[in-house]
């Protein structure tokens, strides 16, 4: 046992261990309470400005406390947690105020709305506090506002490995519990399986186990150090492969041009990911600047440090083109923030790569100061300073006002479901529009304002020209005509999950089969999307003259080309089901014959 491990064992006493386990258990119990409130649509889940801060705080603050115990003095722990709590409250209250995280408990359930912090807030708050906690622990350890890079390196990797293996420990624990439940089931004992089906057991146990794992990894620094060293060595030997691939990609661009790159519509995200991989692998080779590194890795790290800049610049250019064409959106604002951070790293690493008298030593300085920039950028994104929703809505409205976006092509969906309170305010403004396109803007704005939050998962199909339903259909049998009432119907009123895209979008095509499925002498229309992206849908005309979906065709049958070919040729017959359906309280229960022969698609000819 090394001296560092002995010192830490003495520092992290049994009392600290008890506090950590108690913190994890209380965290689990309180999170279960919030889960039960959401499940039952009860208080505090129905109080937005209470629920989101509570959930965000309970997810992050106890982990900071567990990690701080034994490493910070009690007064320092209290001060740090108060600062962290203040930041969490500001971020989560602004998240609620934006109006993007309130939703029905169940779609179309008619129950109360519940509130939770947005997934993006939780994810980026974890990044924010990982960086901030590393800075705090390193500063407290060396009693400096800006600690040495070695202290940051040691603590950051220790925390990362602690969290990684703690999550692994929790997963392994539950695998063993489920194994035990299966064993007891062999002798007809159901108590453990029933226990594992209850959130009141799972949630507290999971977080208590997480705190236990964090403590065990904390008092065994030699093990963590060994795992870290092995991980960094393995990652560093991936660096030459990444350098060769990225260099090859950049060398092909002068010959292939950038057009194909932009046509993917996700070039910026891929380029950002590439820059992040180069950054991580370069640091894996550099470590704390004192490691002995083989010559191929030194060359690879220096080359990677240079490559990050051109990759980032191509990403900036790609984002600039999208913004120039379509304006800012929330995703593009976040991408711009990521590119700002990436450019800061890239410029700093390029400078470090050309300091030939040292082994990338300036990388340490760049990492420290860019980490502060990351904290500032994240705070700006989740406060009104640079709220992506606000910037996106204002950009889209400005493009509409100056004629860069035609009213017929304007994205009302973005305002309603991704613009938060800013988007809804913009839609209210459009309801009072005047001018040549006022009727269209007012109608669409009113329509989207009337939508429920659950409708965000079924965005309306957008088209750039009037849709001709007849032009989108290939009618079978050949030469047949769709009913005039079917072609004349206004399909926009029907929800998108109840109709194929060919009814509302000029870019979609369907096969339309005319058949009398119910035997009433009137034809029904079976629509099968030619892209084979969804099940077939059968439409029938009601007594009011309107057409609506009445049944569906199994997706497996849609994916069977011989079956569809026989339908086109009219080689089919309509048969009654062998068993009638049950009507139980208005719910239809159909019987599937257990002895019916199954005809595989491959056998159809």
Automatic annotation (TrEMBL):
It comes from the Bacteria. The chain crosses the membrane at residues 21-38, 50-70, 77-97, 117-138, 159-187, 199-217, 229-255, 267-287, 299-321, 333-352, 359-382. The lineage of its organism: Bacteria, Pseudomonadati, Pseudomonadota, Betaproteobacteria, Burkholderiales. Keywords: Membrane, Transmembrane, Transmembrane helix. It comes from Duganella aquatilis. InterPro entries: DUF4153. This is DUF4153 domain-containing protein. The keyword Transmembrane helix applies.
């Amino acid at each position: 046992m090394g001296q560092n491990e002995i010192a830490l064992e003495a520092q992290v006493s049994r009392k600290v261990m008890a506090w950590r386990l108690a913190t994890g258990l209380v965290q689990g119990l309180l999170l279960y309470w919030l889960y039960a409130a959401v499940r039952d649509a009860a208080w505090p889940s129905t109080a937005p400005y209470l629920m989101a801060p509570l959930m965000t705080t309970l997810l992050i603050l106890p982990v900071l406390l567990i990690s701080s115990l034994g490493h910070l003095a009690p007064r320092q722990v209290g001060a740090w947690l108060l600062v962290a709590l203040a930041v969490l409250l500001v971020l989560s209250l602004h998240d609620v105020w934006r109006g993007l995280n309130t939703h029905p408990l169940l779609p179309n359930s008619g129950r109360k709305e519940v509130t939770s912090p947005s997934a993006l807030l939780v994810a980026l708050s974890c990044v924010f506090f990982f960086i901030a906690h590393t800075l705090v622990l390193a500063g407290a350890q060396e009693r400096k506002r800006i600690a040495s890079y070695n202290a940051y390196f040691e603590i950051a990797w220790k925390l990362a490995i602690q969290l990684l293996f703690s999550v692994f420990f929790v997963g392994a624990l539950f695998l063993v519990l489920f194994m035990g439940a299966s064993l007891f089931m062999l002798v007809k004992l159901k108590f453990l399986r029933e226990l594992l089906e209850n959130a009141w057991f799972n949630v507290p146990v999971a977080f208590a186990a997480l705190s236990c794992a964090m403590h065990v990894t904390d008092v065994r620094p030699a093990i963590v150090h060994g795992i870290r060293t092995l991980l960094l060595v393995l990652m560093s030997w991936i660096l030459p492969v990444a350098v060769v691939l990225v260099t090859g990609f950049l060398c092909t661009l002068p010959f292939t041009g950038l057009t194909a790159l932009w046509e993917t519509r996700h070039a910026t995200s891929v380029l950002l990911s590439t820059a992040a991989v180069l950054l991580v692998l370069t640091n894996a080779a550099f470590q704390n600047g004192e490691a002995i590194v083989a010559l191929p890795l030194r060359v690879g790290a220096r080359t990677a440090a240079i490559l990050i800049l051109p990759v980032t610049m191509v990403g900036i250019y790609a984002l600039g083109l999208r913004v120039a064409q379509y304006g800012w959106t929330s995703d593009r604002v976040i991408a711009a923030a990521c590119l700002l951070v990436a450019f800061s790293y890239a410029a700093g690493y390029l400078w470090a790569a050309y300091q030939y008298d040292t082994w990338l030593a300036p990388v340490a300085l760049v990492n420290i100061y860019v980490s502060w920039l990351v904290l500032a950028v994240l705070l700006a994104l989740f406060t009104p300073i640079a709220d992506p929703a606000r910037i996106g809505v204002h950009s889209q409205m400005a493009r509409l006002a100056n004629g860069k976006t035609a009213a017929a092509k304007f994205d009302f969906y973005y305002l309603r479901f991704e613009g938060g309170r800013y988007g809804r305010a913009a839609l209210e403004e459009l309801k009072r529009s005047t001018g040549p396109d006022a009727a269209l803007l007012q109608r669409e704005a009113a329509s989207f304002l009337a939508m429920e939050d659950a409708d965000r998962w079924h965005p309306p199909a957008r088209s750039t020209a009037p849709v001709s339903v007849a032009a989108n259909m290939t009618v079978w049998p050949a030469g047949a005509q769709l009913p005039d009432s079917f072609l004349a119907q206004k399909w926009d009123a029907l929800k998108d999950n109840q109709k194929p895209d060919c009814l509302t979008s000029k870019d979609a095509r369907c096969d339309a089969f005319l058949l009398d499925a119910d035997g009433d002498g009137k034809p029904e229309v079976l629509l099968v999307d030619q892209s084979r992206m969804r099940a077939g849908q059968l439409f029938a005309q009601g007594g009011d003259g309107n057409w609506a979906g009445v049944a569906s065709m199994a997706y497996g049958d849609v994916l069977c080309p011989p079956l569809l070919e026989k339908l086109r040729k009219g080689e089919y017959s309509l048969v009654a089901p062998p068993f009638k359906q049950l009507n139980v309280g208005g719910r239809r229960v159909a019987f599937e014959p257990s002895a019916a022969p199954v005809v595989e698609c491959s056998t159809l000819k």
